[in-house]
From TrEMBL:
Residues 24-274 form the EAL domain. It comes from the Bacteria. It comes from Aureimonas phyllosphaerae. InterPro entries: Biofilm_reg_signaling, EAL_dom, EAL_sf. PROSITE patterns: EAL. This is EAL domain-containing protein (Putative c-di-GMP-specific phosphodiesterase class I). SUPFAM superfamilies: EAL domain-like. SMART domains: EAL (SM00052). Coiled coil: none annotated. It holds the Pfam family EAL. Gene3D superfamilies: EAL domain.
Length: 274
């Protein structure tokens, strides 16, 4: 299939590209409805104290149960939600759902919610946060927002201002997937994050070459020097856990402990780990 673009040039669309655009458009329409129609679900993955093995909190991870395509992972639709602005409605839903669920748990169990840079840049996020905490009755000290490092590329003054206001509410702010962005050090310099979540690519390289081990060791040393707590993401083996524990990491999360689970399963998990 070919189409002239008016200037005498011919732009070629292959059937696969047309198909891809159509799929995207349909997916976008479906996602718009998913937020309203209850097709989204939160899963919860536990985080443990790396030194004492005590259950500390859960991270909320969104799932989309598509009527035709089955369950779609967030990596497949969060970017689409960001491009289309749907992330704002989706993010509000995630925040409310996560806080409402955590408010039912024992008071010493926290909840971490992923937020997109687009939500953070959106002026309504702070009042939404205040309202959600009030409506669900969740103590702000139990809530933590995770912001992916690569989305912080430029930590703009208004973003820093927003994050400070969040901390003034008593909510903690973590930097997610630390080490994968282009501005790890300047992010740390420009804002006082409460926690660094070390990307699983570093954690999983622990059994590998000496260079990777040196990198994760340096991140842990740096964090302790600047007084920031750390979570090792994606811990899959006891060798990885032993290494991060020995090197002073604060918390651990990963398939070694548990995969993300339904809210019913999380409640049962809390009962068994109390
Ligand atoms: P993330 O915030 O870094 O979340 C951790 C991801 O690693 C999750 O994938 C989790 O299932 C996976 N994971 C945890 N432990 C292990 C492990 O031991 N091995 C391996 N291979 N993977 C592990 P998931 O749930 O597919 O989420 C992917 C990403 O999507 C998240 O990465 C986060 O950036 C984004 N995301 C998820 N939920 C939301 C949300 O509600 N809002 C926003 N804005 N982003 C979200
Ligand atoms: Mg996260
Ligand atoms: Mg992460
Ligand atoms: Mg990630």
């Amino acid at each position: 299939a070919a189409k002239a673009d008016g200037k005498g040039k011919v732009k070629v669309f292959y059937p696969a590209m047309l198909e891809e655009r159509r799929t995207r458009r349909i997916l976008e329409m479906d996602l718009r409805h998913a937020v309203q129609d209850g097709c989204l679900e939160l899963n919860f993955q536990p985080l443990f104290d790396a030194q004492t093995a005590r259950l500390k909190s859960f991270e909320a991870l969104v799932r989309w149960h598509h009527p035709m395509q089955g369950t779609i992972a967030p990596d497949q639709f969060i970017p689409l939600a960001e491009e289309t602005g749907l992330i704002v409605a989706l993010g509000d839903w995630v925040l409310r759902e996560a806080c409402a669920e955590a408010a039912q748990w024992p008071a010493d169990i926290g909840i971490a919610v992923n937020v997109s840079a687009l939500q953070v840049g959106h002026g309504e996020m702070l009042p939404v946060l205040v309202n959600t905490l009030a409506a669900t009755g969740l103590d702000p000290s139990r809530l933590e927002l995770e912001i992916t490092e690569s989305s912080l590329l430029a930590l703009k003054p208004e973003t820093v201002g927003f994050l400070r206001s969040v901390q003034e509410l008593g909510v903690r702010v973590s930097i997610d997937d630390f080490g994968t962005g282009y501005s790890s050090m300047s992010s740390l310099q420009n804002f006082r994050f409460d926690k660094i979540k070390i990307d699983r690519s570093f954690v999983q390289a622990i059994n590998g070459d000496a260079k990777s081990v040196a990198i994760i060791k340096s991140i842990l040393e740096l964090s302790s020097k600047i007084g920031v707590t750390t979570t090792a993401e994606g811990v899959e083996t006891s060798a990885q856990l032993d290494y991060i524990t020995a090197n002073g990491c604060t918390e651990a999360q990963g398939f070694l402990f548990a995969k993300p689970m339904s809210k019913e399963a999380a409640r049962e998990f809390i009962r068994q780990n109390a």
